[in-house]
Write a structure and sequence with these properties.
Layout (H helix, E strand, L loop, with lengths): L9 H30 L7 H23 L7 H5 L2 H33 L11 H35 L2
Helix pairs in contact: 1-2, 2-5, 4-5
């Protein structure tokens, strides 16, 4: 799969919709807090905490979308210098590292969520796992996209071998 190719699957559209929805909620929460604090002189007690939770979720879901679009920070010096087959093998290696890393993040984060479950947030009285669940949610998005990228890179190596 070429790095510039973006496949708009139903999953990607759903992740984009969730990201947009969360971003709209975030803007609404922050706007309400600013209005209530500076115009009404009666700040909301819960909106800052809700905005923080939403911001965490938007950040990690957005990181998954950036990963899928290959818009994350990366240095292309080596891949651009390689011919097609070595570049594809480098891409497979990178996807394997990404799958392993995100698998480790998810593996270590899920038990942490269980430990945080009994603790509650001060203003909303929600469990802390909601607060930090964005790490697992975004990690699952990145993990899934890394698996798809790995599959596509392996298919590209096979195709390049046939075209030889």
């Amino acid at each position: 799969m070429e790095s510039g190719t973006i496949r708009k699957s139903r999953v990607t559209r759903a992740v984009e919709a969730v990201s947009i929805f969360l971003l709209l909620i975030l803007v609404g929460l922050v706007s309400a807090q600013v209005f209530m604090r500076y115009v009404m002189d009666s700040p909301l007690t819960w909106s800052e905490e809700a905005a923080r939770i939403t911001f965490i979720w938007v950040t990690f879901i957005g990181a998954g979308l950036a990963f899928q679009r290959r818009e994350n920070l990366r240095i292309q010096l080596l891949p651009d210098a390689l011919s097609l087959r070595p570049r594809l093998w480098l891409q497979i290696t990178m996807y394997l590292i990404e799958v392993a890393f995100m698998g480790l993040v998810i593996y270590e984060s899920v038990p942490l969520l269980w430990r945080l479950y009994p603790a509650h947030t001060p203003a909303l009285d929600w469990t802390q796992d909601v607060f930090y669940g964005g790490v697992v949610g975004g990690g699952l998005v990145i993990f899934g996209y890394a698996l798809v990228g790995l599959r596509d890179a392996i298919a590209a190596v096979r195709q390049a071998g046939r075209n030889r």
